[in-house]
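Postdoc handover notes: sequence design on the structure in folder B. Input tokens:
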């Protein structure tokens, strides 16, 4: 079973290579290859989750080189469940892209470039989740980012190049910080294996450990768009093609959150920067949601809500408790799906209404009732309406905050409630203006009549169903997240999987 661990990385890379060799010919074959590769990754991820939950972390040493010399991949409960959700999301977005491919030929999105690049992005995401050492995690980040540089500027339009330039500069700066943190830790400990670092960092002088922790967390915070390192996001995401924006919003920021979780549980346990994380979480919530309230473009509004809801995840990590971590893991899974869905539906709104500006939209409840349903369900979920999964995740965070106690935790609880209400207000504003209000007298030139592409609707609908499944299976899923949190706070099982003979010391 351990032989399955590298497959989520290898399968998309191989599929991308095959598609490049095929070239522009045989479009149906290329689509079948993409779906088969991503579906196989999803199947492997589910098998790894079952095995990791039943038998503990699954580790493999690539090339037969023992840790810490070789490349180690580890699938524990956290990385396995992240793999399952991310592979399901990437598969649905790929199906959506097929519909956009058929509907937007000869426009400014060369989908023949999109598909292999997207598969490389998926491989980078999987590698980042499975990496057992910091340098391999850096390689996964760079695979993902190199693909994202192509995707965010796809088509070469002026708006995309301008937004992509900001994104690329910020991403390069965060990668440089990440590399500096790796260099500091290697110089101080002589290893980049996360299992081995969990022992050796504890032996470092306090100032050295704090410098490494702050540098590493800053790099992850930029990638996760934690305030005040989030101002690049609302200008970078909305201009990209809809499938790119959706997967960026749903997945890429959560990889930064995943890095924060790993750093604060495996590498630097003890909550030394707990107050800093809690303050950053509160500011991310409030600044993000206040920015969302004043937006009139649907994509920019969703980008600001993305920033605000990253604050919920950092809130749970900052609590440094099993309850807080369990709620964070659950909320990350929920938010990957919901945020991706909303950006995909924003693409449907653009296609049917011809715009994403609320000033130019109206009457979609009558002209596109299915789009209304596909927007309403995830919007209420993001707003935290019971009994949906957004409510379950937020309730878990609020309970963990109240159990923690203290002025800062109480302020976070109050901020989380206010943020949820203002998020609901912002999304209801979109619903009222785009769907219920009368259409503008002069419809935008881009407005289209007729049926929406089936693949675009199917990809969006599949994610809506997946989000509802989180609610239907809320109890077992939350219990899995609690087991993952317990495992994170007791990293001995992770270390033992990588060093079964006790070589970590």
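Designed sequence:
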């Amino acid at each position: 079973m351990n032989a399955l661990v590298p497959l989520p990385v290898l399968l998309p890379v191989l599929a991308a290579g095959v598609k490049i060799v095929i070239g522009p010919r045989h479009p149906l074959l290329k689509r079948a290859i993409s779906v088969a590769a991503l579906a196989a990754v999803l199947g492997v991820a589910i098998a790894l989750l079952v095995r990791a939950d039943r038998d503990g972390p699954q580790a493999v040493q690539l090339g037969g080189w023992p840790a810490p010399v070789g490349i180690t991949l580890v699938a524990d409960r956290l990385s396995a469940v992240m793999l399952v959700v991310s592979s399901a999301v990437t598969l649905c977005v790929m199906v959506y892209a097929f519909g956009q491919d058929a509907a937007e030929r000869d426009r400014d999105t060369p989908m023949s470039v999109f598909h292999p690049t997207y598969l490389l992005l998926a491989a980078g995401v999987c590698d980042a989740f499975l990496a057992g050492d910091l340098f391999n995690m850096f390689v996964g980040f760079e695979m993902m980012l190199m693909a994202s540089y192509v995707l965010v500027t796809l088509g070469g339009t002026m708006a995309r190049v301008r937004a992509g330039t900001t994104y690329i500069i910020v991403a390069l700066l965060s990668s440089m910080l990440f590399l500096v943190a790796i260099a500091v830790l290697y110089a101080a400990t002589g290893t980049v294996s996360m299992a081995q670092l969990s022992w050796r960092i504890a032996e470092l002088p306090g100032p050295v450990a704090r410098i490494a922790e702050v540098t590493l967390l800053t790099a992850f915070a930029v990638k996760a768009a934690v305030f005040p390192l989030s101002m690049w996001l609302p200008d970078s995401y909305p201009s990209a093609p809809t499938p790119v924006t959706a997967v960026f919003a749903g997945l890429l920021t959560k990889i930064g959150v995943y890095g924060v979780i790993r750093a604060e549980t495996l590498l630097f346990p003890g909550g030394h920067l707990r107050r800093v994380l809690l303050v950053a979480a509160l500011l991310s919530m409030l600044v993000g949601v206040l920015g969302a309230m004043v937006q009139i473009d649907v994509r920019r509004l969703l980008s600001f809500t993305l920033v605000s809801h990253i604050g919920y995840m950092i809130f749970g990590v900052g609590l440094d408790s099993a309850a807080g971590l369990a709620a964070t893991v659950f909320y990350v899974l929920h938010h990957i799906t919901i945020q991706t869905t909303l950006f995909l539906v924003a693409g449907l709104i653009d296609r049917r209404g011809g715009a994403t500006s609320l000033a130019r939209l109206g009457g979609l409840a009558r002209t596109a009732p299915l789009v209304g349903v596909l927007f309403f369900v995830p919007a209420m979920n993001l707003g935290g309406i019971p009994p949906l999964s957004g409510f379950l995740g937020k309730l878990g965070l609020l309970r963990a905050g109240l159990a923690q106690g203290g002025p800062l935790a109480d302020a976070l609880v109050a901020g989380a409630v206010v943020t949820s209400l203002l998020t609901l207000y912002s999304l209801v504003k979109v619903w009222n203006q785009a769907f219920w209000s009368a259409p503008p007298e002069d419809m935008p030139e881009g407005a289209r009549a007729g049926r929406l592409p089936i693949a675009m609707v199917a990809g969006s609908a599949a994610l809506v169903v997946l989000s509802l499944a989180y609610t239907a299976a809320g109890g077992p899923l939350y219990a899995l997240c609690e087991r993952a949190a317990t495992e994170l706070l007791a990293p001995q099982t992770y270390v033992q999987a990588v060093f079964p003979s006790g070589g970590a010391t």
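Context for whoever picks this up: Residues 100 and 456 are 7 Å apart (CA to CA). Don't rerun without checking with the PI first.
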